[in-house]
Amino acid sequence: MKNSWIILFFLCAQIGWSQGEEKRITVTFENVDLQSAILQLEGLCDCTFFYQEPWVDQYQGVSGSFQNATMKEILKNLLDTTSLNYFLLEDRVILTNNNRIYGYLPKGFFGAQEIGDSTVANTSKKINSPIFEKSYRQSNQQIIPTVKIGKSSEITNQESFTISGYVTNTKTKKPLVNALIILEGRNTGVKTDNNGYYNIEVKRGTYLFEVNDLGMENFKRRLIVYNNGTLNIKLEEKIEQLEAVILQSDVNNAVTDVVTKTEIDIKESKNIPLALGERDVLKVAATLPGITTAGEGTIGYNVRGGKSDQNLILLDEAVVYNPQHFFGIFSALNPFVLGEANIYKSSIPASYGGRLSSVFDLQTKDASTDKFSLEGAIGPVTANIALETPIVKEKSGLLIGGRAAYANWILDALDEESLQDSEASFYDGIAKYNHQISKNAKLEAMAYWSRDDFSITSDSLYVYGNKAFSLRWNQKFNDKNSGEIALSSSEYSFDIEFDGDSDDDFELGYRINETALKLHFRHLYSDRLKFDYGVASKLYSVNPGSIAPKGVESIVEPLTIEKERALESAVFVAAEVDLFEKFTLDAGLRYSIYNALGAGTQNVFQEGVPREESSITETLTFDENEVIETYSAPEVRVSGRYLFTEDFSLKASYNSTYQYIHTLSNNTTVSPIDTWKLSDLNIEPQSSQQYALGLYKNFDDNTYEMSLEGFYKTSKNILDFKTGAEILLNENIETEVLQGKGKAYGVEFLVKKQKGKLYGWLGYTYSRSFIQLDSPFDEERVNNGDFFPSNFDRPHDFSLVTNYRFTKRFSLATNFIYQTGRPVTFPIGTFSFDGAEFTVFSDRNKFRIPDFFRLDIGLNIEGNHKKNKLAHGFWTISVYNVLGRNNPLSVFFVTEEGEVKALQSSVFSVPVPSITYNFKF
Predict the structure, then answer these.
(1) Domain coordinates of the chain in residue numbers?
(2) C-alpha to C-alpha distance for 75 and 83, rounded to whole angstroms
(3) pLDDT given at position 10
(4) Quick one: pLDDT at residue 126?
(5) Contacts of 340 (CB under 8 A, 6+ apart)
């Protein structure tokens, strides 16, 4: 009976269709609403429209002029940009929303051939058959609501369509990052990006659409997909206590991501006991495999056997040259303003360049556009604060963060007479403005600055600091294309003032600045293929140093080293493609070109002799912006992932990288007064190649995550220096430079427990890092030209970080670290010559200082969890270096009464207790 009514209705439709086309109308619409246009047509054609008013009320500004046109022609024009379809039946016009009424049966409806309009049936394009809806029910038998996507068209040449939109938090209006979108019939889901945006490609039909995000209520809808369309989703917060998750928001990322990255959970970093109760995301990173420091209280990080200058540290796309305060004890980045921290050390995307070892991509969080909030901490040495306030309700907000230290009391308390008159202080500040211009456009601006002042002796004052600025515009062009343009500027500088008792007082300064522009675009070709591409360029400007007399009585001669400038540019493209059902490949190419620029001079040295001032044959002079030297090279980035199961994968990667900037330091550890040198005619850029292979496995419903990865890396033109080199204010620095080869290899093991009362991770790394400084000349050869351990070679590195939650308010955290002592050069004898005693030293880095190990314990006490409290707070009571281990930072040697004695310097040789109060309004 049902099918008989369908046939009768379609036959009537055939008659009505032909009659409706015979009517001709002349009418003009000028910026009217669709409802008014329909009423006007009803009066002109003596017909009746059938529709629901909410369907048409949303369409305003209808315009058009029609001369002797059929009703079909007029409606086609008026409804083209809407979600409405029409059907003509005698003197009636039936409007439908999204779907359409068919005037013929689909092919094979009764097992016979299609009937209906032969013109449509014979078209070369694909005929869209009706969608017969499939219903879905919840587990409680409630019907899942239906959402229709796109507008049904009669014919099309498209095989598939795109659903896209944004996922946001209903309460905060903020985008939800890494929310998982699951569609029935697909093997995998998709995740939202940093702006909460997603897109997914499907065929016409009915689907069950589901959105999941940690801490949010699940979202389910029945989708009827007719065409391309948008579905924006607002998720409600789930009111329940969740188990803590360490290091990453999506527990399966480590297994499924093709380009491996380490994600630091900003919120959970507060529970890890560190020096003097300070939160420090970068210190947390150093507890993970493959990332180490040269020692306690040192600046910089060593990643997979690389130098500290080989890490690109970005804050909202702006480079931070020195991310630490107070000789590396504290971070220079306010933890309360950070939203994401991702580290690439195995496979570096092609969009990043300029460093060999790793990328630390740090992103500030967006300021709330809904309500005012205040968060901060007060500790024994520092105070932090972060303020968020809306500027334009639900559109823009401002985030302001600040930190300051009051550390002088620590120096006064130290039992060291030489430090009694010392002073040390620092501060940093950050401001970010975010504005949602439209649903497809977003503007972000960030400004950051930091400053350290310290005087370890009464006659010297050291000042160093960072400045950074970035301006970013994110744009979604359509369902398949999006992009970002970023303008940034970064500066690092230090100044030294010496005011002694003699007449050699001076002022010394150094400064490096870079200004960068980057255009980064993304194209989603299909579910199986997507592209990243773009261009980037940065201009370096370096003031290598200047010294001037301080005061009229100083006899110091003024000196200024000539300025250095260079332009580094790159073009990059990468594609991620699902080659097979379980194998995905990410292949990228970055081509970088570097131009050292004038004005300036460059020395030319005699061939066949050591490079010394005496071997300079001529000095070349270059005009302003004249190219001194050009270097260029392709950089290949390839990563592959084979998914054995949903929770077990094998990954492999190859990366080649180039670095055109170097640090100048003849210390065994990095210091805040190390300088940066640009590649030029005599100093070549560094390069590196890295191979990696790893297994990634999750267990027990993602409760445990385990990874095992090995790497091998070779490097060229690694910068080192001759023994006793003069680095600062040297006009011919290339005479002190040695460039050699490097190699590093190792195995990294990590196991994490991500759920339950006890969670944390255990990491172990076995790695070696070597350097070779070989030359035909004895003066430029180190250790007979053989490979020898680098200053930061630590074969064994073990970390155990745990947190046990007794209740929802009380938890106990521990942090245990063991590392092999780093290499050092020891004196091995003395000899007399011409009545003077001289010391004989071993081969460079032949020995090691004692091993390092440290245990920290912290007790976290949270306030009650009442929802409507004015402020929420918690206390952290911690003891750093519980065992009182006197870990050496360095070992040095002095001669007293003709005897060589070894002395040791340490940063924390006793347990250091602290108590910190954290609050949030």
Answers:
(1) 2-122, 146-235, 253-920
(2) 13
(3) 43
(4) 54
(5) 177, 194, 263, 266, 361, 362, 363, 365
Q: What phi, psi does 782 have (nearest 5°)?
A: -115, 135
Residue 722 in tokens? 């001759």
pLDDT given for residue 82 in this prediction: 83
* Letter string b/e over residues 31-61, b meaning 16 or more CB atoms within 10 A of that residue's CB: ebbbbebbeebeeebebebebeeebbeebee
Q: What is the DSSP string of 203-271?
A: -SEEEEEEEE-TTB--EEEEEEE-SSEE--EEEPBP-SPPPP--S-SSTTHHHH-SS--EE--TTGGGG
Residue keyed to tokens 């589901």: 210
By C-alpha distance, which of 514, 509, 510, 564 is closest to 542?
A: 564
Alpha helices, DSSP H only, in 536-612? none
> Which residue would you say has higher pLDDT here, 824 or 247?
824
Distance between CA atoms of 650 and 692, rounded to whole angstroms? 11
pLDDT recorded at residue 471: 97
Locate 620 and state its tokens: 């070349």
Task: Answer with the residue of higher pLDDT: 187 or 321.
Answer: 321
The CATH number of 253-920 is: 2.40.170.20
Model pLDDT, residue 146: 84
> What CATH class is the domain 2-122?
alpha beta
252, 702 contact by CB (below 8 A): yes
Structure tokens, 833: 């010559």
Q: Summarize the confidence of residues 883-900 as an average pLDDT.
A: 74
Three-class DSSP category at 733: helix
Residue of higher predicted confidence among 262 and 521: 521
Q: What angle do CA 239, 243, 248 make, to 5 degrees?
A: 110
**Tokens in use for 835?**
């009545």
Q: What is the CATH number of domain 146-235?
A: 2.60.40.1120
Confidence category of residue 15, pLDDT binned at 50, 70, 90? very low
Domains 146-235 and 253-920 equal at CATH topology level: no
DSSP 482-543: EEEEEEEEEEEEEEEEE--SSS--EEEEEEEEEEEEEEEEEEEEETTEEEEEEEEEEEEEEE
Cα(437)–Cα(442) distance, integer angstroms: 5
